[in-house]
Every structure is written in structure tokens, then in C-alpha cells.
Amino acid sequence: MNMSNEQYKKYAKQKAEKSPLLKDCIKAFLIGGLICLIAQGFFVLYQTLNIKEEDARLLTSCTIIFITAWLTGIGIFDKIGKHAGAGTIVPITGFANSVVSEAIDAKAEGWVLGIGAQMFTIAGPVILYGTASGMLYGIIYFFMTM
What we know:
Number of helices: 7
Radius of gyration: 21 Å
Structural class: mainly alpha
Strand content: under 5%
Shape: extended
Mean pLDDT: 83
């Protein structure tokens, strides 16, 4: 069956499963909010343990990163992500998931050339452009406040 490009687009559009956009948005909002609520719970817990606010913030981030990495490693975070969609891309959980997922995928290639070299394949550009934009923002802020 030889189709033109337009015919194929029409055929693919007919066969494509329609995404329940409103339902997906609600699930992303609720699960993303739940992740933030859990993080806030850890923050409050650390503060009730008389940990300074700055240290409590750091501990909260580390705890959420650890939990996300652990859940990714045992295969649960991806199942959550399948239902939550963008709700699991809350920056810190999305970053931890992308790093651990790449490490798991590269495990068969060994520790150095596999995990060590491939671990930041997805997260690398995020680190690079995040750092670059932070530097640019800092330079602009410096000159604007002179």
C-alpha cells in the first residue's frame, strides 16, 4: 500500500488514540501536588527536629532525590509517571529520575564506560544550560544593580 504523505498523516490521525487532556491535566496536577506536599511534610518534620531552616531545605531536597532514585531503581517511579505524566517532572524528581534511569540502562556496559559515561546523557544538557542561564542571569543582575 503506497500512500502519499498527506494520506499517511490522515490515516495516522484516524488511528491515533485520543488523549483525555482534561483527565491527564488533573492527574498531573494532583500527583505533582502530592509530591510537593510530601516534600513539605519532610521540611516540617526536619524543622520540628530543631534543624535550621536552611539545613531543613537541603535535607528535604536530598530526601526527595533519594526517594525518587530509589523508586526509579525498583521500577515504581516509572509506573507513577505513566499515570501522573507531567506531574512527576517537578524539577527535582524529574532530574533524579532521568539520571537513575540512564544509569540503569547503561548498567550492562560496565561501571566506567556504562554507568559512569552514560549516566548524565539526558541530565547533562539540563546541567549545562541550567548553569549557563544561571551565569547569564548573574551577569545581568550584577550590571543592573551597579
